[in-house]
Batch of 3 targets.
Target 1
Amino acid sequence: GDSVTQMEGPVTLSEEAFLTINCTYTATGYPSLFWYVQYPGEGLQLLLKATKADDKGSNKGFEATYRKETTSFHLEKGSVQVSDSAVYFCALREETSYDKVIFGPGTSLSVIP
Amino acid sequence: NAGVTQTPKFQVLKTGQSMTLQCAQDMNHNSMYWYRQDPGMGLRLIYYSASEGTTDKGEVPNGYNVSRLNKREFSLRLESAAPSQTSVYFCASRPRAASGREVRETQYFGPGTRLLVL
């Protein structure tokens, strides 16, 4: 079945460092891909999305590009801030299912001043 | 708008007890979902409801039942709680897909219910 794999955490970075969180997926067809963020004590929020190959999603300085050839959707940010400390989830929606979204295990990010 | 609200925020149960987790949304969304979140496993779909009056099983439905009471409310019931159901439960909603090629992807999540089963 379809699945999402993320890099193991936790990740600890200093403020202004470059961030990459790797995400790869297994799916048939052309899924839609997402990054969600969960701040401490809160529910998940959509951070960015891409619905077709080579699309780049971006929001709040974060970017991710839908790479069909490598089945990847890596999250990047050029300069992280303390306020970016959260858990980040990569997810996909199967092409043939409107309602079923499959989430990765999440990667915890801590940014220290 | 309050968005997606969940009650209670936290609950402790003994094995075998029953309880209902409540979820409501005021965004007039058609689809609603229940997930559980466990360390290292991300979110797993328990049940979902594509529209009022319909419900479908997700990835991990065993031990749970749901009711889509009306368009706003979607409840999750544990008839006989087990320690394996200790988790954080999230409710989410999503609007109906638009016609044509546009798909409204974003799910809106509630703040979660932390459940501990002893």
Note: The radius of gyration of chain B is 14 Å.
Target 2
Amino acid sequence: GAVVSQHPSRVICKSGTSVKIECRSLDFQATTMFWYRQFPKKSLMLMATSNEGSKATYEQGVEKDKFLINHASLTLSTLTVTSAHPEDSSFYICSARGLAGPYEQYFGPGTRLTVT
Amino acid sequence: GNSVTQMEGPVTLSEEAFLTINCTYTATGYPSLFWYVQYPGEGLQLLLKATKADDKGSNKGFEATYRKETTSFHLEKGSVQVSDSAVYFCALVYNQGGKLIFGQGTELSVKP
């Protein structure tokens, strides 16, 4: 149990375009989802926390107009990188937390974004 | 503030060697502690956890004991395998519903 999926696993887009990444909890209801960014050989940087049905809470220094997060249902959150630039290229990972085991987060497999 | 410090990598070991990856934390209360593992190109998987002092988390031959007196949660395995090669992250969550705070990660490479 507690499986989180992400789609796509890899995406290449041109500079100036937008790209959407989906995060789904497959077998549990995720009241809270988290979006992280990871640079090569670095730790995870929390970008934002999203609760179902409410606006996401962004970490300091993360542009909310650039990284749009929607948590429309208890099993789906999306991250849209708007007007992407090469510096947005990174590994994006989501995690989800359900009602049971409130301390645990279950992570998706990640999405590799490359902006050309 | 709350923070997690891990030993720097990369750690390179021969197969069947003993592994220790040190992790210490700073927290004002009594956090829950976790070890996550990340295999190349993948997301994180929960390896083990401990929610209170003196708890021992264990999974797949890995163990870690929550030591309040030394604010540590060191990861150990008696005999590593090549398949254990990955990046290991120590993390804490301070309160219910709180955010995970990660250490910087320790890369482990196990040679045959």
Note: The CA atoms of residues 54 and 71 of chain A lie 7 Å apart.
Target 3
Amino acid sequence: AQSVTQLGSHVSVSEGALVLLRCNYSSSVPPYLFWYVQYPNQGLQLLLKYTSAATLVKGINGFEAEFKKSETSFHLTKPSAHMSDAAEYFCAVSRTGNQFYFGTGTSLTVIP
Amino acid sequence: ETGVTQTPRHLVMGMTNKKSLKCEQHLGHNAMYWYKQSAKKPLELMFVYNFKEQTENNSVPSRFSPECPNSSHLFLHLHTLQPEDSALYLCASSQERASGLDEQFFGPGTRLTVL
């Protein structure tokens, strides 16, 4: 069975501060991992994905995530938050032939 | 049009109405999906079509009826819905269903309100 847990349904950071959004997964075999972003009134957009190549994955808009097998984590980070980063962020896990499992999402607020 | 489009963007319907949601993808993909997004809940996968064939139905009530006439179009027919069915319905597509590493491309969603 697979699942993904996002710790913290709401995260607030000051503009220019570090963004850290947490994601832990459970999977019986090495998974594929994804981060999606959803802006208000829009669908989900892929930020980045891990598919068993480099453990540090760089995505769009300055985001990156590191796959840590020992911690079963795939946390999303950005060194300096921008006002435009305010959105809902979803972590997802999948395997070959299987469906995506999404987390419950983390709402990011950026304080000016 | 590019990407995945959905119409209508907003829909208000009574419990006795019949309506349909439409999704179209312009990406040449072979797999299409319907998701339900409710507040404070994970995205719920409802239906999956791969090469126009329905491959998954995740215990969705029969008042939701999908239709996939070709690989580019996906419909969700709605009939005698309940207020708890109010949600954002998202359509997505990917190259193929079998490969879990294919990213899914999402449409903007239809905000459905059932009165």
Note: The mean pLDDT of chain B is 91.
